[in-house]
Design a protein that fits this description.
The structure holds two protein chains of two kinds.
Chain A lengths: L6 E6 L4 E7 L1 E6 L2 E5 L6 E5 L2 E7 L2 E15 L2 E11 L5 H16 L7 H24 L1
Parallel strand pairs in A: 1-8
Antiparallel strand pairs in A: 1-2, 3-4, 3-6, 5-7, 6-7, 7-8
Chain B lengths: L3 H54 L18 E7 L9 H16 L6 E5 L1 H9 L3 E6 L8 H16 L3 E11 L5 E9 L15 E3 L2 H75 L1
Helix pairs in contact in B: 1-5, 4-5
Classes of the chains: A alpha+beta, B alpha/beta.
């Protein structure tokens, strides 16, 4: 069987279907590290962590921020089920900035009524959002 | 016989009521459209989720996870009732409450059952009657997000896993079409037996291990189910409200017509009487 040379990428969140596109390759934030996927990848099921996802169509790379979920990879198809997913262009930088400052403050001054784990995750989400958003700006 | 003035006043009152019901119908129609779009947008996620779960169920021992096992004997059933926050929507809330009442009777448990109440209308009814309310959420439909569903699911899972609840059911109005809502009662926990995928299954690589992914997925599946129920109920509410307000607008049109007719008769009778008075007065002189 000939290997497919394109991947059909689908990204869906509980709210909407975000991406449905033929792509050349992509990179995912797997729970145990970033994974690169090319057409013809072996079938794989993996959970995702908070991180950056990109996919490439021709010369064009699109960046998204992802927070949790899982992915199903088939040789010619990739389905991402994410809790939260945003395109780089959609990210509200001011809000992410504010979230980062808040989370950093919480982590800097731990008190018993603050959930450290939650603050840590919030910080991670904010940092990823900022990172992804900065990619959108430099590219244009 | 009511006076002309009284009748005019009544017609005016009905007219202004009609204006309100007409406006409410229009608002409900536009909100319904958005709510309907959200229901449709949420479907792919739930469907893919179920597919992946089913393919996993084939290779993981279903008894291995607490959300799949039959609940503890000591616990009592928990019922999540989804109603709306507002009324003026026909029998929408009444239907959900009635179905919930029927479920409580059917369980026939001396110690009663626990309730999780979503929506102000249902909460008011059940709280007033002294039921055991385990958790409640009011006013979430104005800005419904996935986080709300996650909160409810987490509360339900907590009740179930801790053994306080032997099972969790959910009752809500399903959006069938603009004119029809259907009451649905579903078992949420333990998660009904998953259909192991039949036929040739793909050999997957797992990262992390299959049972770990499974354990990660199950609570999300419950969340997605709750989210779907909330969206369905929300869309059904606007559909019910639209239909109810449409009927109200039509009824007030009818009422205005019959009142106008009656008023004209009264007016004519008064004119006739006056003419007779004038004529007979002239004849007497």
């Amino acid at each position: 069987m000939a290997l497919p040379n394109k991947l059909l990428l689908e990204i869906v969140t509980p709210d909407r279907s975000l991406v449905r596109e033929e792509v050349d390759d992509l990179q995912l934030p797997g729970a145990e590290g970033y994974l690169g996927v090319l057409p013809g990848h072996a079938p794989l099921l993996a959970t995702l962590k908070v991180g950056e996802l990109w996919y490439r169509v021709g010369q064009e790379r699109q960046y998204l921020s992802i927070a949790g979920g899982f992915v199903e990879v088939l040789p010619d198809r990739v389905t991402v089920l994410a809790q939260i997913a945003e395109r780089a262009q959609e990210i509200d930088v001011a809000r992410a900035e504010a979230a980062r400052t808040r989370a950093e403050e919480r982590l800097a001054r731990p008190s018993p009524d603050i959930d450290l784990e939650r603050a840590r995750i919030a910080l991670m989400k904010a940092l990823i959002r900022l990172q992804v958003a900065s990619r959108a700006r430099t590219r244009v | 016989m009511p006076s002309l003035l009284d009748l005019r006043r009544r017609i005016r009152a009905v007219k202004s009521t009609q204006q309100i019901t007409k406006a409410m119908k229009m608002i409900a129609a536009s909100r319904l459209k958005r709510a309907q779009e959200r229901v449709i947008a949420a479907r792919p996620y739930a469907r893919r989720m179920l597919q992946v779960l089913n393919s996993l169920a084939a290779r993981v021992d279903p008894e291995s996870h607490p959300l799949l096992r039959t609940g503890s004997e000591e616990g009592r059933p928990l019922l999540i009732v989804i109603t709306a926050d507002r009324g003026l929507c026909g029998s929408f809330n009444a239907n959900a409450i009635k179905a919930a009442g029927q479920f409580i009777v059917e369980q026939n448990r001396a110690e009663g059952i626990g309730l999780g109440l979503i929506g102000r209308k249902g909460r008011d009814v059940f709280r007033r009657r002294g039921f055991d309310v385990r958790f409640e959420q009011v006013g979430i439909f104005q800005r419904l997000t996935y986080a709300h569903a996650a909160d409810i699911a987490v509360a339900a899972i907590d009740e179930f896993v801790s053994g306080r609840a032997s099972s969790v059911h959910i009752v809500y109005n399903e959006f069938k079409s603009v004119i029809a809502q259907r009451i649905v009662l579903e078992q949420l926990l333990p998660i009904p037996r998953l259909e192991a995928a039949t036929g040739p299954t793909t050999e997957y690589l797992y990262e992390p291990a299959a049972d770990q992914i499974f354990a990660d997925l199950l609570p999300r599946h419950v969340q997605a189910q709750v989210y779907r129920a909330l969206l369905e109920s929300n869309a059904a509410f606007f559909a019910a409200q639209m239909t109810a307000m449409d009927a109200a607008t039509r009824n007030s049109s009818e009422m205005i017509d019959s009142l106008t007719l009656y008023m004209n008769k009264v007016r004519q009778a008064a004119i006739t009487r006056e003419i007779i008075e004038v004529v007979s007065g002239a004849a007497a002189t």
